[in-house]
Amino acid sequence: MNKIISKKVLSKSVTEMKIYAPQILKHAQAGQFVMLRINEKSERIPLTISDMDHENGLLTIIFQVIGSTTYELNELNVGDDILDLVGPLGKPTHIEGFKKVCVIGGGVGCAIAYPVAKALSLKNVEVDVIIGFKSKNDMILHQKFEKIANHVFVSTDDGSYQTKGFVTDILSDLLKNGQTYDHVFAIGPIIMMKMVSQLTAKYNIGTTVSLNPIMVDGTGMCGGCRVKVGKDIKFACVDGPDFDGHLVDFDLLQSRNNMYKETETKNYKCLAEKGGHS
Ligand SMILES: Cc1cc2nc3c(=O)[nH]c(=O)nc-3n(C[C@H](O)[C@H](O)[C@H](O)COP(=O)(O)OP(=O)(O)OC[C@H]3O[C@@H](n4cnc5c(N)ncnc54)[C@H](O)[C@@H]3O)c2cc1C
Ligand code: FES
């Protein structure tokens, strides 16, 4: 069993948990994820390994309460066990050969961007970070990014903290003012990754995005997570989740993720109204 060792509220809808899982940590690298199942009745969901404490065998997950499974996960407390935790899954993020990069995180995507920024910084790569949120109250991981990055820029949609606007406004200003990067990593809402990729294409800067299609088994068997990258069909769970942002069909990804929205929203509302007891 995988015991929850700590639980911390990072914002209104985002929680951090540290879980005792030394076996998974042995092989885990930045960019990889776990599939977890809370109990026999729950669905399996993918969550990124957001940080690793090898000394104590603890892996960190940071999740947004968005539907029924993340709601149930958030009901667990320190000392509770998670039934299944499988990983590390997916390919590690490619971080070799760069001198100066920009890592961009949007909303809960910052939980996925953080381990990438940290791994790059540990390799002495110069890392600029741009993180964006709806509002100051939604901001997460700002201080953790400050510790590892050369510069951290923050945008908020409503202007309640630092730059008013989107992460792309900050990136666009930096690039217009002559800033150069070997590579950009962008992780967040699909529309954000699409807009960043369109911008970096103009400047011919290679761009990695981390895709979040609906996953079922996480083993490449069910086809649930298929995405179109250039002319190829890929499975995000085994071929990704990282792909070349200049080749990804973001519109198809968005429409596939929207397919289950109505049913999932209905299930979540039902669960929340019952106070978590289904
Ligand atoms: C490789 C990978 C890593 C991920 N890492 C993280 C992470 O570190 N932290 C985190 O908070 N989330 C992460 N996610 C997304 C997370 O898996 C989903 O939010 C979760 O499965 C939702 O489950 P649920 O039952 O609570 O919600 P559901 O009831 O399944 O969904 C609720 C709502 O969220 C939307 N939704 C569900 N899954 C996704 C998705 N994958 N992308 C976009 N919208 C979705 C649905 O359309 C629906 O409207 C990751 C996804 C992938 C594929
Ligand atoms: S989740 Fe089933 S193939 Fe990727």
Keywords summarizing the entry:
278 residues; Elongation Factor Tu (Ef-tu), domain 3; Rossmann fold; seven-stranded mixed β-sheet; 17 strands; globular; binds flavin-adenine dinucleotide; binds FE2/S2 (inorganic) cluster; 2 iron, 2 sulfur cluster binding; iron
Summarize the structure.
The chain is α/β, with parallel strands linked by helices and 278 residues long. It folds into two domains: 2-89, Translation factors (Elongation Factor Tu (Ef-tu), domain 3), CATH 2.40.30; 100-258, Nucleotide-binding domain of ferredoxin-NADP reductase (FNR) module (Rossmann fold).
Number of helical runs?
9
Sheet with most strands: 7 strands, mixed
Structural class: alpha/beta
Bound molecules: flavin-adenine dinucleotide, FE2/S2 (inorganic) cluster
Domain count:
2
CATH architectural name of the largest domain: 3-Layer(aba) Sandwich
Overall shape: globular
Look at the structure and give the mean pLDDT.
93
The CATH class label of the largest domain is Alpha Beta
| Distance between the ends | 23 Å
One letter per element, helices H and strands E, the order comes to: EEHEEEEHEEEHEHEEHEHEEEHEHH
Give start-end ranges of low-pLDDT stretches.
none
Describe the structure.
Its cofactor is [2Fe-2S] cluster; FAD. There is one protein chain. This protein has 278 residues and is of the alpha/beta class. The chain has 2 domains: 2-89, Beta Barrel (Elongation Factor Tu (Ef-tu), domain 3), CATH 2.40.30; 100-258, Rossmann fold, CATH 3.40.50. The chain is built from 9 helices and 17 strands. The chain has a 7-stranded mixed beta sheet with strand order 12-11-10-9-13-14-17, with helices on both faces. A 5-stranded antiparallel beta sheet has the order 5-6-2-1-7. Strands 4-3-8 form a 3-stranded antiparallel beta sheet, with no helix packed on it. Helix 5 packs parallel to helix 6 (190-202). The protein starts with a strand and ends in a 5-residue tail after the last helix. Bound molecules: flavin-adenine dinucleotide and FE2/S2 (inorganic) cluster (FES).
